[in-house]
Amino acid sequence: MWDDALLRYDMGEHPLDPVRVELTMALARDLGILAREGVTVRAPQQAGDEVLGTVHDPDYIAVVKAASTGRRIGIMGLGTTDNPTFTGMHEASALIAGATRAAAEAVWLGEADRAVSIAGGLHHAMPARAAGFCVYNDPAVAIARVLELGAERVAYVDIDVHHGDGVQEIFYDDPRVLTVSLHESPRSLFPGTGFPEETGGPGAEGSAVNVALPPGTDDAGWLRAFHAVVPGVLRAFRPQLLFTQCGADTYRHDPLANLRLTVDGQRAAYLALRALAEEVAGGKWVASGGGGYALVECVPRAWTHLLAVVTGDALDPATVTPPSWRALAAARRPGHPVPTAMTDGGTGAWTPWVPGQTPDAVDRAVMATRAATFPFFGLDPHDPRD
């Protein structure tokens, strides 16, 4: 799902700069990914109030509309440093929601095998409050649409460095939606939620799974944690569709967080998610973007890898970034280092989790999550085969 109009989600002098999405699409184009056989680039339609109202309160939508006209608004999370208002905010936010909803609808209805809404992933927005740079919660809007179309089990896996709190909150009491979030510990990072003990509301126990990783976690530790938790709960839940939020702010040089992944580790995560979608969800996979504030160094490369994995063969990490893209990146962000290859020299290697074998902070986080959630799925927290 793409149209240049998606770049209008622009908060001005702000970390969430749309240049990261612009450079992603430019890199994907220059590497030929968007021209692959079978790939369709479709322009989205703006989500209407009724669609937004499936997850957001009408009063909140009205306030967002008022703020979009240039009025000063300082309520419901708007008008803050994190969520400054801007002219056209409602329209830009609703377009992103429409893009992600259309991606999910196309996959659920069989019009596409997989789909991606790279400008989406605004996972912090709450039913009646903006939060964490997010106005409308497009992943939740998309999931609500799939449920409306008859889905009985949808899995949401969030690999952004921040907890996917908005999506979890919206579906916390709904046993049809499994939310899984791997993120930096809420003790050290916004939004301060996402502890292992958050496991779902009454009647939906086990529907929320949270892996809170220590600052400094690198590729090997992150991938060890991912494979120790995510495959087991997805296999037990048996989703009919997998939705993933693929924020790139786990990057080792991201200015807003403290994990230490390379683009190679992120690429390995995308490959693992595609394999799980094939295994547990009949291949039905919808991916979105999310956070990511290393605007030139990471996000365009990470999400170009994602677009490649969604649309076919993964890119060779040794692929050289095209001179045309390097020139654009240098012009759009003077002074930023411009990567010359699609790799950071990482390997994406990891060692499988075995309880007590590597008793470090990552493994303690894994054990906390498994102990809190695995019994709900009939899984043994101490058995690495589960």
What does it look like?
Belongs to the histone deacetylase family. Pathway: Ketone degradation; acetoin degradation. One of its GO terms (biological process) is epigenetic regulation of gene expression. GO terms for molecular function: histone deacetylase activity. With 386 residues, the protein is α/β, with parallel strands linked by helices. It contains 11 helices and 6 strands. The protein has a 6-stranded parallel beta sheet with strand order 1-6-5-2-3-4, with helices on both faces.
Q: What string, H for helix and E for strand, traces the elements in order? A: HHHHEHEHEEHEHEHHH
Q: How many strand segments?
A: 6
Assembly status: single chain
| Cα separation of the termini | 36 Å
Helical element count?
11
**Helix percent band:** 25-40%
Strand content: 5-15%
